[in-house]
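Moderator note: this is an archived Q&A kept for reference. The question asked for a predicted structure of one protein chain; the sequence and the answer are reproduced below.
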Amino acid sequence: MTVPQDTANPMTRTWTIVTGGNRGIGLELCKLLLKAGKPVLLCSRSPENGREAVAQLIKESGGHEDTCRSLHLDTSDRSSISKFVGTIKSSYDQQVGALVNNAAVMRYDWTKESFDTSYATNFEGPLQLAEKVAPHIKPGGTVIMVSSSLGSLKNLSPKYSRTVTEANDLKELSKMPHLHDDPMKNTAMVPCYSLTKAMLNRMTQLFASDPLLTSRNITINSVCPGWCRTAMGGSQGAHRSAEQGAQSIMNTLQEASGERPNGGFFRDGQPLPW
């Protein structure tokens, strides 16, 4: 059997970072990557859960620790992100081919606490990781933001829609306020989730022209995996499996090494309006 180039020699190995990789769509994506011969850095908020997921993946794929490793990362915690980036810098600099920001939370209410939690995990975490990991990604690599069609502008109130689309830079976008009496609290199914995913999409657009990425030919895109049967998506009503959601991400990862779309929003490899 021919060993894929990425796993044949440690000096040529190119890793894919997957946040929230210990379950659901993230875990299924890790399976697809390993099947394609792509080594994985599986990131998990719980070190124990991460190690268990890696052991499962290695057993199922017939691989070893040189193809799949667990790293601790809480995307809502700046100190955790800082330690994680330090590890990437010291052990994986220029060996990362892709960063997949998959970790997220979903809250159903419109309280300030839910907004802050959603903002930290769904927006600020991916922003910090993209900014700090980008210098350690190989030139020509890619960043994937796992988003949702719930983050489409049609799911926002007119005021929030304007605020998101009119943000001219990442600093301005980061100043998004929580408007307690905004109509979204009554009209959106998951208002905090919808808003922060819309912000993630706008972040993707802004990063696509940022010299931090463009100077090294690194592309960035948002991907909607669809409504999947996972712990977050639930088992009732969701018409897609976690594997199908992961394949949607995989499609754009594969395109990033071919046609190289940049700054777009995709599902199953097809552009989505947002």
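Archived answer notes: The first strand starts at residue 15 and ends at 18.
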